[in-house]
Design goal:
The structure holds two protein chains of two kinds. Chain A contains ten helices and no strands. The two termini of chain B are 13 Å apart. Classes of the chains: A mainly alpha, B mainly alpha.
Chain lengths: 293, 316
């Protein structure tokens, strides 16, 4: 016979609350830290990330003294390259999220407001984009447009559009049945105005959470694309490219592969924790449902 | 059930049709001459004209599209421009690497994720749960190609248990072949297992407020026993859905991982084809991969409709 209580609600709620705050705080701290490092790289890096001529004599130095994270095959300072890489990764992911929000959110609002065949059409197009493995779509686009950071942004951004359209539509649909929306209709407001004044503010929470998630996926996608040579091009630094450049030598100089990889992991982990924390903080309904489990 | 299958089948066909049109339009109709693209900047105009003729580019667009899609139904994907062999043969060779790799990774992910997710749910809000959830967060954040490099560092360079890459071929023996796929499969499985374990845990927790769990607990089963005997089966439906949806990520991941380990699979083929501007190979492999994703999800839909009659009535 079990001695556990049949329900352990109070303890669970308490524990969950703390966990949420913790993941929010840790996630926010990591994310802000990475952003700060990226901004710092605009004005200062320990060494020139792209010195000319390349200090070949300094190449593949293990982490020590002047080079905290060591140097790469051309003698460049790995820490400086990672700092500059942070800037590029964040920029690519951020603009890609911007594309998704800028096009996807209006589409989702529109689909929810109009319903009917247009709604169906938008959602079927979404299904189609989902059927393409995201990375494959990106590879196809960059293969045709040519490799480069801009095309990587487009490729990642296109996949963000249906994500935001779907999330916005789903949340907006349920709002359209609310009394205050009906009241606004009775007052004579058109569906565009209602979407902007009443629906959008109420889906913002969900969008912020989704944006955080897509941001972290964007960082991973940029790294993968750059790793296979389709993303950021030399001489720009990118975490993914640093990893692909380290491919032939990481067996005898592991530091050239370990630090850029860690940079990706820490950044993505921070964003995911932040997203989880935000979701639980911004959506009290979800929190109650979860603690009721 | 019959109408459900028919409905899903129509939806599957529509997605595939649309996907084929998108791929065709992107690859062939957008500005630029595929023949000139394939031959490069300094191509002789006569050679470009000859290639246009050979590729059938002088035919009307609709005719070209129908030829390409029609070819798929009879297994004729055209002739690879660089390899000068039928694309079908190229793809068939690569499938013998990519499919076992994907299946191995999927099996590994399930073998790891199920027990881990069940333990986390049974010990929810304990230290064990916290450690498992932390580990899965990490697993999701690690790029699989970097994890692959770490695996090579540990098990090939350090311990010398596995080779760092390459594929000896199935002729060298099934075990030898499988051994060379172990590290790539582990690298591919890590993020999948992390996501699946989380889904398993939350799907289990979702069932805990159900009446049958309360009954099981009232009979005297512990929370863990109730989960193992009653909740797992009910949690399988969301878990299966996620397995289906993750399949496209598995394929995409395989494309990257094959490049880390120099495996002669579809992923290597598509990159080589891109580098060599072999558009015929690129578009056929892409359509094939999209078809694989769509068909897997279709199968999952059917499988859980077969398990749970409630889902058959769901609106599409």
């Amino acid at each position: 016979m079990s001695t556990e209580p049949l329900t352990d609600l109070p303890r669970q709620e308490h524990g969950r609350w703390r966990a949420h705050h913790l993941s929010l705080i840790i996630g926010a701290a990591i994310t802000l830290g990475v952003i700060a490092i990226a901004l710092l790289s605009l004005v200062w890096t320990p060494h020139d990330p792209n010195p000319t001529p390349l200090p070949i004599a300094e190449r593949l130095k293990p982490p020590a003294g002047a080079h905290w994270f060591g140097t790469d095959i051309y003698g460049r300072d790995v820490l400086s390259m990672i700092m500059v890489g942070a800037r590029n990764s964040i920029l690519v992911a951020l603009v890609a999220v911007g594309i998704g929000v800028g096009i996807g959110v209006p589409l989702g609002l529109f689909a929810a407001a109009r319903r009917g065949w247009l709604d169906d059409f938008i959602m079927r197009v979404n299904d189609l984009v989902f059927a393409f493995p995201a990375l494959l779509l990106a590879i196809m686009i960059t293969a045709l447009l040519g490799p480069g950071a801009i095309n990587a942004i487009i490729a990642i951004g296109i996949f963000n559009i249906p994500v935001f359209a779907r999330v916005t539509r789903g949340a907006a649909l349920s709002l359209w049945t609310r009394e205050y929306v009906l009241a606004a209709r009775v007052a004579g407001k058109g569906s565009a105005l209602i979407s902007i004044e009443h629906i959008l503010p109420n889906v913002l929470n969900i969008l912020v959470v989704q944006a955080t998630i897509q941001f972290s996926l964007g960082i991973l996608a940029e790294a993968a694309l750059s790793y296979v040579g389709l993303g950021t091009q030399p001489p720009m630094s990118s975490w993914g490219r640093m990893l692909s450049e380290s491919q032939t030598m990481f067996a005898f100089a592991p530091h050239v592969a370990i630090f850029p990889g860690l940079a990706i992991v820490v950044t993505v982990l921070g964003l995911n924790l932040l997203g989880d924390g935000l979701r639980d903080m911004l959506d009290p309904r979800l929190r109650r449902e979860r603690s009721a489990q | 059930m019959g109408s459900f299958v028919a409905q899903r089948f129509v939806s599957l066909s529509a997605t595939l049709l649309a996907a084929s049109i998108v791929i065709f339009v992107v690859m062939e109709v957008l500005p630029g001459d595929p023949a000139a693209y394939m031959l490069g900047l300094n191509a002789d105009p006569a050679a470009v004209a000859a290639l246009r003729e050979q590729l059938g580019l002088n035919e009307p667009v609709l005719q070209r599209y129908l030829n390409w899609v029609g070819g798929f139904f009879v297994g004729d994907f055209g002739l690879s421009y660089t390899y000068r062999v039928p694309v079908r043969e190229l793809i068939a060779d690569r499938l013998w690497v990519s499919v076992p790799l994907a299946l191995m990774a999927l099996a590994l992910a399930i073998i790891i994720a199920f027990p881990v997710g069940i333990i986390a749910a049974a010990k929810r809000n304990s230290i064990v749960d916290a450690v498992i959830m932390g580990a899965t967060q990490l697993g999701i954040a690690i790029p699989n190609f970097w994890f692959a490099m770490l695996l090579v560092l540990a098990f090939s360079v350090g311990l010398r248990w596995f080779s760092a890459g390459g594929f000896p071929g199935w002729d060298a023996g099934i075990l030898v072949g499988m051994k060379s796929l172990v590290l790539p499969a582990v690298a591919l499985a890590l993020p999948q297992a992390s996501i699946l374990a989380r889904v398993m845990r939350s799907a289990l927790l979702d069932t805990l407020h159900e009446d049958f769990i309360r009954t099981a607990r009232a009979k005297g089963l512990s929370s863990g026993q109730a989960i193992r005997h009653h909740a797992v089966r009910n949690a399988l439906i969301p878990v299966m859905t996620i397995i289906g949806l993750q399949f496209s990520f598995l394929l995409a991941g395989a494309i990257i991982i094959e490049n880390v380990f120099f495996l002669p699979g579809l992923g290597r083929l598509i990159f080589q084809a891109i580098a060599q501007r072999d558009l015929i190979v690129v578009k056929s492999v892409v359509l094939l991969l999209v078809a694989a994703v769509v068909i897997v999800n279709f199968t999952v839909d059917l499988a859980y409709a077969a398990i749970d009659p409630r889902l058959r009535r769901r609106a599409p």
